[in-house]
């Protein structure tokens, strides 16, 4: 069965600092991988997705993620954090047919 | 541009009461999903519907039933609510695919069971 592990339930960075949110997956076949963001009292919004076209995927709001098969990782990065990036971030892997398996989530705090 | 609409947004129930959570999408998607979100556990799939007329169990289906009323609507029913079902419930939809299509989420229903 596929699974997703997000390292760190809470990450805190200063405004302008690098954001790095870690995600590792287990899958017996090349996966489809997603990052979603959830702002308070809202649903999830798609940040970016990996579907094997390119290992470095660019998303919205300056975020990007790199698929590394050898490390079974799909870490999310942003060069410079902004206060508006404070939210909860979820990594997910897709099973055949479209069902998503989510990680536990990482709450990002941005300090001024 | 509504996307996925969930009603109600908030609900408080007593143990043993029943209720139905409603979900509708206007994107002509074939697939629809119900998740629950609990602190530290991410989102877990309750039921899903790959297409109109079909439904299947997800990871945590016990205590729930679903109905795919038509292509637009997918409802979730709690027949006899229990405190363990206190959670935030999300409905999502996606185009039919092989897992590469992103899901679009509603804003959730916050359900408390006393």
Walk me through this protein's architecture:
The complex is a heterodimer of chains A (112) and B (114). With 112 residues, chain A is mainly β. Chain A has no helices and eleven strands. Chain A has strands at 3-7, 10-14, 19-26, 32-38, 44-50, 56-58, 64-68, 73-78, 87-94, 100-102, 106-111. In chain A, strands 2, 4, 5, 9, 10 and 11 form a six-stranded mixed β-sheet that branches. Chain A has a five-stranded antiparallel β-sheet with strand order 1-3-8-7-6, with no helix packed on it. Chain A is globular and about 40 Å long. The model of chain A has no long low-confidence stretch (mean pLDDT 92). In chain B, strand 7 (64-68) and strand 8 (74-78) form a beta hairpin. The A-B interface holds A 4, 9, 32, 34, 36, 41-46, 49, 51, 90, 94-100, 102-105 and B 4, 31, 33, 40-45, 48, 50, 58, 90, 92, 94, 96-108.
Key phrases:
heterodimer, A: 112 residues, mainly beta, five-stranded antiparallel β-sheet, 0% helix, B: mainly beta, 49% strand, globular
The gist of it:
By secondary structure, chain A is an all-beta fold.
């Amino acid at each position: 069965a596929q699974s997703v592990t997000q390292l760190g339930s809470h990450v805190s960075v200063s405004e302008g600092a690098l954001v790095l949110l870690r995600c590792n997956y287990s899958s017996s076949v090349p996966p489809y991988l997603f990052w979603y963001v959830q702002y308070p009292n809202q649903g999830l919004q798609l940040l970016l997705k990996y579907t094997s076209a390119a290992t470095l995927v660019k998303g919205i709001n300056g975020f990007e993620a790199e698929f590394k098969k050898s490390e079974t990782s799909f870490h999310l990065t942003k060069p410079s954090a902004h206060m508006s990036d404070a939210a909860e971030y979820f990594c997910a892997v897709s099973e055949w047919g479209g069902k998503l398996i989510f990680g536990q989530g990482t709450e990002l705090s941005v300090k001024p | 541009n509504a996307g996925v609409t969930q009603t109600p947004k908030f609900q408080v129930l007593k143990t043993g009461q029943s209720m139905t959570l409603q979900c509708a999408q206007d994107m002509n998607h074939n697939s629809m999903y119900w998740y629950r979100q609990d602190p530290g556990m991410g989102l877990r799939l309750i039921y899903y519907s790959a297409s109109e007329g079909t439904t299947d169990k997800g990871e945590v289906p016990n205590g729930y039933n679903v109905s795919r009323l038509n292509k637009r609507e997918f409802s979730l029913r709690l027949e006899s609510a229990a405190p363990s079902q206190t959670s935030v419930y999300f409905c999502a939809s996606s185009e039919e695919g092989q897992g590469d299509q992103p899901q679009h989420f509603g804003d959730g229903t916050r359900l408390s069971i006393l």
